[in-house]
Automatic annotation (TrEMBL):
Short name of one Pfam family: DctM
Main localization of the protein described in the UniProt heading: membrane
A GO MF term: transmembrane transporter activity
Keywords: Cell inner membrane, Cell membrane, Membrane, Plasmid, Transmembrane, Transmembrane helix, Transport
Family membership: Belongs to the TRAP transporter large permease family.
One Gene Ontology cellular component annotation held by this UniProt entry: plasma membrane
Identification of the protein by name: TRAP transporter large permease protein
Species annotation: Azospirillum oryzae
Length: 425
């Protein structure tokens, strides 16, 4: 295992693509093991692809790309403007609400951050918001998509950890809205101190709010339809991914009438590219997962941790600290695939609900995409808005602290996360 870990980090430092760094590191285990034939490593790659729940990934990726071409984004922006632009820091508040609504459409934090940076970022800067503040609001706000269903990260966690994806989706609702509230309060506090005013001085009437919601109804109904379909037993999580593609097509072609055949072809190309990247990581992670189980890494780490404390909250807190540090250097998808088989067997015997742990884990590892030194969402937004990374780092500190505080609250009160899935499933 030591050689495997060293190989992985050396290859990462050399700039080898993550998927191939995982694959080559995993292969070194079988080459040097002396007990297991190398052919078993190849079999593990093939075995990782033989999973029905894994079909949810390409379906949801394609649905997200199609949704972005159906006019749904602009309708959600209009809805968000009506609902919150009258608050202090109005345009920044729109970004937070839009991330929440887009979480039910794209399922990807980086995709959401890039979209908002292109569409809303220039308007915020022209309105007097600093580049660092604008970039921080957009990048950290996109973290909400890590929990709001359909989150691709939750799908992968459920696939690797054999945890109900339906329960994970339901569990992500309350944390997603709590994160929205916490980040909106942070924006309000900073805006009041700096004099960032509201985008409009007039509060919306009930009629205006209702009209805005009705105008964006097909986007707002999308995550609701997915949850109802899973909860009602109409579809499995994999089948509901196919339903999401059909839903996006029907809305785009026949309701909004903005999705063209050219758009559909572009969405397919982008979805194939994204799916290929994700699945390469998943397949090569099969070898590493086998090595982890063979070397009994979960048992060794569990013995070390329980030697320090057997208090479940403290054990999970230690794991979350480790995940936060790891997330600073490694992409969230990789962490979920590599570390879920290690940490889930540690926390379950202590009585920690795997759904509760999954929400905490996804929030923390996705936060790494918004923090240096290798935050993908951070660099995406900063490059699109021409913002110095140093300025972004300073401005993002209050938002990161707010998210960490929320994670601590959810750790101490599991009922906040488990209330909805326990009530409905």
């Amino acid at each position: 295992m030591i050689l495997l870990a060293l190989t992985f980090f050396i290859l990462m430092a050399l700039g080898v693509p993550i998927a191939f760094a995982i694959g080559m590191a995993g292969f070194t285990f079988f080459l040097t093991n002396g007990i297991i034939p190398v052919s078993i490593g190849v079999q593990q790659v093939a075995t990782a692809s033989q999973s029905f729940p894994l079909l949810a990934v390409p379906f949801f990726v394609l649905a997200g790309h199609m949704m972005n071409r159906t006019g749904i984004t602009h309708r959600l922006i209009g809805c968000s403007n009506v609902l919150v632009s009258w608050m202090s820091g109005g345009l920044a508040q729109v970004c937070i609400v839009l991330s929440t609504l887009m979480g039910g459409v794209s399922g990807s934090a980086v995709a959401d951050a890039a979209m908002e940076a292109r569409i809303l970022g220039p308007d915020l800067i022209r309105s007097g918001y600093s580049k660092g503040f604008t970039s921080a609001v957009i990048a950290v706000g996109s973290l909400i998509t890590a929990t709001i269903p359909p989150s691709l990260g939750l799908i992968l966690y459920g696939f690797v950890g054999n945890v109900s994806i339906g329960r994970l989706f339901l569990a992500g609702i309350v944390p997603g809205f709590l994160m929205m509230a916490v980040l909106m309060v942070t924006v309000w506090w900073i805006a009041r101190r700096r004099g960032y005013g509201a985008a409009t001085t007039q509060r919306p009437t009930g009629k205006a709010m209702w009209e805005a919601v009705v105008h964006a109804k097909w986007a707002l109904l999308f995550p609701v339809a997915l949850l109802v379909a899973i909860r009602g037993g109409l579809f499995t999580p994999s089948e509901v991914g196919a339903f999401a593609v059909i839903y996006a097509g029907v809305i785009g072609f026949f309701v909004h009438k903005e999705l063209t055949l050219r758009d559909m072809a572009d969405a397919l190309v982008e979805a194939v590219t994204d799916t290929g990247l994700i699945l390469l990581i998943i397949l090569f992670s099969g070898m590493v997962g086998y090595a982890i189980v063979f070397e009994q890494a979960p048992q060794s780490i569990a013995a070390a941790m329980t030697g320090l404390t057997r208090e479940p909250v403290l054990v999970v807190a230690l794991i979350l600290v480790f995940l936060f540090v790891a997330g600073l250097f490694i992409e969230s998808t990789v962490l979920v695939l590599l570390l879920t088989p290690i940490f889930l067997p540690i926390v379950q015997p202590l009585g920690v609900d795997p759904v509760h742990f999954g929400i905490l884990m996804m929030t923390i590892v996705t936060l790494g995409s918004m923090t240096p030194p290798v935050g993908v969402a951070m660099y995406t937004v900063c490059s699109l808005l021409d913002c110095p990374v140093e300025e972004y780092i300073v401005e993002s500190i209050p938002f990161v602290l707010a998210v960490v505080a929320l994670v601590a609250v959810m750790l101490l009160w599991p009922g906040l996360v488990l209330f909805v899935p326990n009530a409905l499933m």
